[in-house]
Amino acid sequence: MSRRRRSSPATASPVEDENLLPEILLRLPPEPSSLPRASLVCRRWRSILSDPDFLKRFRRHHQKPPLLGFFRANSMSTEHQFIPVLDSPDRIPAARFSVPNNSNKHWNFIGCRHGLAILVNMWLRQVMVWDPLTGQQHRVACPPGLVFDPEVHLVYWEAAVMCADAEDGHVHGDCFSRPLKLVLIWVIGYRKAFACLYESASGLWGDIVSMESTDAMLGIRPGILVGSALCWVLCGGNVLVFDVQSQHLDLIKRPVDCPMNTTSYGFVQVLRMDDNRLGLAYLSKLTILLWERKSNCDGVVRWVFLQKSIQLEELFPHRMFSRSKKIIITGYDEDTNVIVLSTIGGVFMLQLYSMEIKRICKGGGLCLDNFHPYTNFYTTGKASYIFTLHEQTRVI
After folding, report:
1. What is the reported pTM?
2. Residue 203 to residue 183: CA distance in whole angstroms
3. pLDDT digits (tens, 9 = 90+) for 14-53
4. Hey, what's the signal peptide range on this chain (predicted)?
């Protein structure tokens, strides 16, 4: 007599498991093409990948958004444009991020942070926060106490935007509708600096704070965020520091052993070092010298020269400097620790940890424009750009 074998119940495939599939998709790489390509598999995958809650979890899982490119800005023209830095299929077309008010010469592109860009128009006395992914923008009138004529007074100004969301586990990247803070800083007549903080939660500017310096304050470079402080380096290497929490404005003198002078605009850059410490890079011919703010045994914070100088001639392509040794610093990304260097042979980005170097613009003369880094998660839920996958309509 033969016995019939009992058939075991069918085991669901991992991709059919309602709870397991989203966990698998969370682990897709954070590069721009990952989610759009996966969303072509089927309707179910597309539904999961476009869900706002999934996208929030995706950002939280990866924590650190990729560097998508740089906004190239020239204060003397309206030619503000996006320069992508990723390779295909993650490379985003420059036209995808079209800077608003690009035809108005009075709008200056100032910088990016937490997936948002900030522009300033001192003639209109307005600050604009712009989300490159969605195109949304929000304008804020400058503080009432901002009194000067940009056509008469010699004024340097800078601004910064930052997400102020205190929600536990919040990862920056979808911050336009979150609480924001704006900081406006300006220097009049070389000697007096002013700063003011705006908070979107209240819709109000705080008090204008100021400080005077015996050293001339020239040519403010784009700022970086170090802990709760926004830091801007001046031509001579001194650093303007505005603490967002205490709303205190201060000036940190340059390292005493640094050979820079007041004409060093393109040769000096503030850095965000490990443990949220302030660093300083000085470009001396073809060598980058580094300093870091550290506390000594008495608790006194001072500049410390780091012995690990960077020899650029060893990193750049062979014979890059055979015609000209001219090189300047034109940008820096605080999140990825990438510095942007302009040469006669093109514009390059250098990762200061790995020492990897990559050309992002071809040559044609020394470029004096500022390159503002843009990092974000380019997700299907927010982005309207469709990646061309060799004309495939589905992924197998």
Report:
1. 0.88
2. 13
3. 556 677 999 999 999 999 999 999 999 999 999 999 999 9
4. none
